[in-house]
From TrEMBL:
Transmembrane segments: none annotated. The keyword Cell membrane does not apply. GO terms for molecular function: flavin adenine dinucleotide binding; monooxygenase activity. This is NAD(P)/FAD-dependent oxidoreductase. Keywords: Oxidoreductase. It comes from Kribbella capetownensis. Pfam families: Pyr_redox_3.
Length: 370
């Protein structure tokens, strides 16, 4: 049976047959979900009776608990403070998949956030004016839903001719555990994002590597990332989701930043990039001009997609494939909010989105308290 952080069975308003009634269901307990839950409770929603957070993971930490062991706090691109509690100091060699989940666990406990886990949300549909949230445990009926499921559970691997014929190992960054298992091999890294840059540096210490991307990388210095530039980036992403277009990755807007720990790899030529191949062979890849490359493994650093399949019964998507947004609200269903989506996909953006969603829902559901 799913448990709360305190080890108690969740209550809510039990209306029989495994159905709980609450005002707001938050789906996901990562940065965005915890931020939304914190603000909802602060704005007067009673934990468990009026607001509940459903988390599919067995423990606190969101996607961070699934990151590879070699990812340290020195490697991550910064962790934003959760509202009300700053990130504690960390040693640079602390494992991110232990340090951040520890921070999240302390946060949930400190504020008594109504997290229930492990609970997998199977579908959300509209029934008699309420949202029926069906899960691996109870069913919840709610006036509103805040979706904070992120992307980790939807790794994206593009299809290429011959992909099923490759006799070596193929894996996504979601399945990467460390460079040691590739020692002495030749690894093809596919993708133009920050993870590709980081893992190329790590792998190149023990293996030979080749890097392929669809577009030439656009490198930026640390000085380029100032507040004004950040606002422009958010505006570009927000423009797309307001138009109902699928959000692009942050790197597609910001470009890549080479950090000091990757400088040695840059000087060794690790970031010499080749264009995308046209097909995969049993032993490697092949380009249009007939060039072939034999590799032992293909690491797909090709990103993730928003994990929103459980919202499909609500028909939120536009013909263009995206979800039209107004702030954190979906235009089709204003009582369904997406946080950690589009312009709020960063940890800082997720915090702000959590506050925006909570404030909007307080106005919609409890206008007297607004």
């Amino acid at each position: 049976m799913p448990q709360t952080l305190a080890g108690k069975t969740p209550t809510g308003r039990d209306v029989g047959r495994g159905v709980q009634e609450v005002e707001v269901v938050v789906i996901g307990a990562g940065q965005a979900g915890l931020s939304a839950a914190y603000h909802l409770v602060r704005m007067g929603f009673t934990p468990y009776d009026e607001v509940v957070v459903l988390d599919r993971n067995p423990a606190p930490g969101g996607a961070w608990q699934h990151r590879w062991d070699s990812l340290t706090m020195h490697d991550v691109h910064g962790i934003a403070n959760l509202p009300g509690v700053p990130v504690p100091p960390s040693a640079s060699d602390a494992r991110a998949n232990e340090f951040v989940p520890g921070y999240f666990a302390d946060y949930e406990k400190r504020f008594g956030l109504p997290v229930v886990r492990p609970v997998s949300v199977e579908s959300v549909r509209k029934v008699d004016g309420l949202f029926e949230v069906r899960t691996s445990g109870d069913t919840y009926r709610a006036d509103a839903v805040v979706n904070a499921t992120g992307t980790w559970n939807r790794p994206f691997i593009p299809w290429y001719p011959g992909i099923e014929s490759f006799r070596g190992r193929q894996l996504h960054t979601a399945d990467y555990r460390g460079a040691a298992e590739f020692e002495g091999q030749h690894v093809l890294v596919v993708g133009g994002g920050a993870s590709a840059v980081q893992l190329l540096a790590e792998l190149s210490e023990v293996a030979s590597t080749t890097w392929v991307t669809r577009r030439p990388p656009e490198w930026r210095t640390g000085e380029d990332f100032n507040p004004e530039y950040g606002r422009k980036v958010v505006a570009k992403v927000e423009e797309r989701v307001r138009a109902g277009l699928p959000p692009r990755s942050v790197v597609s807007v910001t470009g890549l930043h080479l950090r000091p720990q990757e400088q040695a790899a840059f000087e060794r030529g690790v970031y010499t990039r080749l264009p995308m191949f046209t097909r995969i062979t049993p032993t490697g890849v092949e380009w249009t001009d007939g060039r072939r490359l034999q590799v032992d493994a293909i690491l797909w650093a090709t990103g993730f997609r928003a994990d929103l399949a459980h919202l499909a019964p609500l028909h939120l998507r536009e013909p263009s494939g995206g979800i039209r947004m107004d702030g954190t609200q979906t235009v089709v269903e204003p009582r369904v909010h997406l946080v950690g989506y589009g312009p709020s996909a960063s940890t800082i953006g997720a915090n702000r989105a959590g506050f925006t969603a909570a404030r909007t829902l307080r106005t919609l559901l409890n206008p007297a308290a607004a």
